[in-house]
Amino acid sequence: MIEALQDLYARYALGLDGADFDLVARCFAADATYEVDGVYSARGKDAIMDRIRSRWHAGRTHLTCNTLFDREDGGVIRGRATFAVLDEHAAVLACGEYDDRVVLGPEGEWVFASRRISYRATGDDDGRGGDMDKLGLGVDEVLTTTRAVRKRLDFDRPVELGVIRECLEVALQAPSGSNKQSWHFVVVRDEQRRARVAEVYRKAFADYEASPLNSGRLFADDAERHAAQGKVFGSAAYLAQHLHRVPCLLVPVAAGRADQLTSAHRQANYWGGIIPAVWSFMLAARERGLGTSWTTMHLRYEQEVADILEIPYADYTQAALVPVAYTLGTDFRPGPRQPLDDVLHLNRW
């Protein structure tokens, strides 16, 4: 029996390595469940295979080891194993654990009734390093094509904690006034907390929609810009409607209360200590195939979000809320902008 169970794990890995999706499909019961890091789940073989096909990458090798099998009631076997995913150069892209329930299928083969995948790390063992998949963009291309992505976010693909940590390691190299580094970053992947934050966000968006500052109402005397603003508003409304589906939210936080700063100098110093770091995060995310969008909509109800995320409101100020997800395609172009000469001043105004 042990050999037959080990064959199941081998079929799964070899099927993934060789893009033999029929072989992979044989590994699952018709009504199987599939969960990744508590962020994504699918039920039924067809839904599971759709997911696996959408995430498949050529040149990867899946290794499985440390398998342990225990009998449970009803002829169910609990299988646990460690896995690693290697790239074409044999560098470790990710590692983690499988926690499975295995049953005999109608053809007499062992199949997964459920599979739960938990990533222990991506890159180095502590999840901090190693190169995640990168697009290989040049510096200027990253700077000019990091767009506010809303309608092209992949809501169904989990964002690994390891890639978020990579982007934050880049962000920590940003400058800050007097090198205080008084920043914190709240990464929200929990589904229930994301849903609660999204409810507050939608309440704030309803206020915004009714206000004269609604982006769709701006530049009414300029037909071309007004049309562009209508698209901006439609995109923002789409994000508000679907924010709960975004797999990861980043809330950057700065020490102190910004609303207690009374001078422009102190305000500039304060925001200059957090905004460059967040933008660096967004640039790093772009290079790794992730889409982001800078939004401050929820700050109308900042304290409510602070309560949801257990941020000490009296001592810390939220700077933004950044949705983070892999993008549907990676082909982004520079956006339309005013001519440089309209805003450039040499030596004097």
TrEMBL record:
<keyword id="KW-0560">Oxidoreductase</keyword>
<comment type="similarity">
    <text>Belongs to the nitroreductase family.</text>
</comment>
<dbReference type="GO" id="GO:0016491">
    <property type="term" value="F:oxidoreductase activity"/>
</dbReference>
<dbReference type="Pfam" id="PF00881">
    <property type="entry name" value="Nitroreductase"/>
</dbReference>
<protein>
    <recommendedName>
        <fullName>Oxidoreductase</fullName>
    </recommendedName>
</protein>
<dbReference type="InterPro" id="IPR000415">
    <property type="entry name" value="Nitroreductase-like"/>
</dbReference>
<feature type="domain" description="SnoaL-like">
    <location>
        <begin position="3"/>
        <end position="116"/>
    </location>
</feature>
<feature type="domain" description="Nitroreductase">
    <location>
        <begin position="147"/>
        <end position="326"/>
    </location>
</feature>
<dbReference type="InterPro" id="IPR032710">
    <property type="entry name" value="NTF2-like_dom_sf"/>
</dbReference>
<dbReference type="Pfam" id="PF13577">
    <property type="entry name" value="SnoaL_4"/>
</dbReference>
<dbReference type="InterPro" id="IPR037401">
    <property type="entry name" value="SnoaL-like"/>
</dbReference>
<dbReference type="InterPro" id="IPR029479">
    <property type="entry name" value="Nitroreductase"/>
</dbReference>
